[in-house]
Amino acid sequence: MKITGSIREVRELVKEWKRQGLSVGLVPTMGYLHEGHKSLIDRAVAENDRVVVSDFVNPIQFGANEDLADYPRDIEADKRLCEAAGADLIFHPAPEEMYAPDFSTYVEMQQVSERLCGKSRPTHFRGVCTVVCKLFHIVNPDQAYFGQKDAQQLAVIRRMVRDLDLDIRIVGCPIVREADGLAKSSRNTYLNEEERKAALVLSKAIFHGEALAKGGERRPDVIADEMAKIIKAEPMARIDYVELVDADTICPLQKMQGRVLAAIAVFIGKTRLIDNFILEL
Ligand code: PAF
To answer: Does ligand 1 have an atom closer than 6 angstroms to the CB of 58?
Structure first.
């Protein structure tokens, strides 16, 4: 396995692979890889001849008061995980490689990116769309792999690919959880022992909401209220949002139909965590 920070080098390698008729999968990440990322890499390795993992903490998707400086990084551990999973290349650029000092072109999306996380993090999806669009142009993959844990991000990427006619298949992969239910996230490392226990209200709320919906409850507001009740019972938790929306448009639901996304964002202390479930009706 190779690692490079050079856009030119990635392009040359991928060009050579394509010349040989090989398919290329891309797994975009911000590093500090855990088993959730590993499940994406495993799937990419199974479905492609060559796999590129991008490992880049993208500064432009963090708001001014967010955790860019504190975001956990461990490139040596990432290398070991990628190598063991069978990836062929890690793209680990310096911020200067991705963003010229006078960088001034952004991919801006309306609608899908405006609610939920887009509301609490107004410039977040502009940063995500811009970097993912750049990565798609640099790596030129046939398929790209994203986690369902970031359900709105997945909807945003799918919309961008459709709207901008990008010739890339987007693959969404299931949420990976800790044994006790907490969804895997690089941000879980911010939690102290007490907060880690309190963070279980997220998965508890998700499992309860899912059970209600699967049991036949068809009132979105009732399911959201029941989930919120569980979270509010935990003194260390503060709700950012608990919402049921259409999984593709991220618009609020009047009725439970189609692909329903129940999504939550909750602060545990200073750490903002997200979780969700999707129900196909
Ligand atoms: O999901 C992430 O880790 C990031 O948002 C992504 C897609 C790698 C873009 O920086």
So the answer is: yes
Pairing of strands 169-173, 237-246: unpaired
Q: What is the mean pLDDT of residues 29-54?
A: 98
* Active site annotation includes 37: yes
Candidates 55, 58, 91, 188: which one to mutate for ligand 1, based on the most atoms within 8 Å of Cβ? 58
List pLDDT tens digits, range 105-144: 999 999 999 999 999 999 999 999 999 999 999 999 999 9
Indicate whether residue 150 lines ligand 1 (CB < 6 A): yes
Tell me how far apart the alpha carbons of residues 132 and 51 are, in angstroms, rounded to a whole number.
16
The residue to which tokens 């901008």 are assigned: 164
- What are 186-200's pLDDT values in tens digits? 999 999 999 999 999
Q: Note the pLDDT tens digit of each residue in 224-279.
A: 999 999 999 999 999 999 999 999 999 999 899 999 999 999 999 999 999 999 99
Beta strands in 207-258 (DSSP E): 237-246
Does ligand 1 come within 6 angstroms of the Cβ of 160? no
- Taking CA atoms only, the protein residue closest to ligand 1 atom 9 is 128
Which residue's entry shows tokens 């961008």?
160
What percentage of the chain reaches a pLDDT higher than 90? Answer: 99
With a 6 A CB cut-off, is 128 part of the ligand 1 pocket?
A: yes
Quote the CA–CA distance of 243 and 260 in Å, as a whole number. 10
Residue 51: how many CB atoms within 10 A of its CB? 29
Q: Domain 2-173: which topology?
A: Rossmann fold (3.40.50)
Output the pLDDT for position 254: 85
Topology given in CATH for the domain delimited by 186-280: Pantoate--beta-alanine Ligase; Chain: A,domain 2 (3.30.1300)
Kindly list the domain boundaries of the chain, sorted by start residue. Answer: 2-173, 186-280
What are the residues facing 263 on neighbouring strands?
243, 276
